[in-house]
Amino acid sequence: MTMNSTTDTVYLASRYSRHPEMQQVAKRLTALGFEVTSRWIWGDHQINDEGLSEEASRAERERFAHEDLEDLRRASICISFTEIPRSTNSRGGRHVEHGFALALGKRCIVVGPRENVFHCAYGVEVYASSDRVLEALRLELV
User: Fold this and answer.
1) Are 119 and 87 in contact (CB under 8 A)?
2) Phi-psi region of 92 (alpha: psi -120 to 50; beta: other; left: phi over 0)
3) What sign does the CA torsion over 33, 12, 19, 121 have?
4) Are 81 and 94 in contact (CB under 8 A)?
5) Looking at residues 1-9, what average pLDDT do you find?
6) How many CB atoms lie within 10 A of CB 26?
7) C-beta of residue 111 within 8 angstroms of C-beta of residue 94
8) Looking at residue 44, what is its pLDDT?
9) What is the pLDDT of residues 85-117, one digit of tens each?
10) Half-sphere exposure of 62 (CA within 13 A, CB side)
């Protein structure tokens, strides 16, 4: 794979509480030559478990959504980090991001179990761990 302006950008989608892990993945991707477009991973999009935020007003939450979709549009690859299915009050924004990426014709990658039917869509790549997807992307650069 030859890196260029249309193939060198990655959006990371995951549960918000995994943002420190996503920061590490972003650093590793950057070291491989990719640009990570996901601003949310740097920790300023916190919404509490009730879907409200002590810090985030409605206007701020609208900004979060706008920024996430803008960042996703800029990316050529969307990597979705999934969870083992469980009972949770998780909001699931990562699923919206994955679906949005599919609709835009982006390259979509799942890291972890296939949580929903759209993780089984034609062309979606699945890896067991971030190490495996990073290795696969590194090998494409050779």
Assistant:
1) no
2) left
3) negative
4) yes
5) 57
6) 20
7) no
8) 73
9) 765 566 688 999 999 999 999 999 999 999 888
10) 3
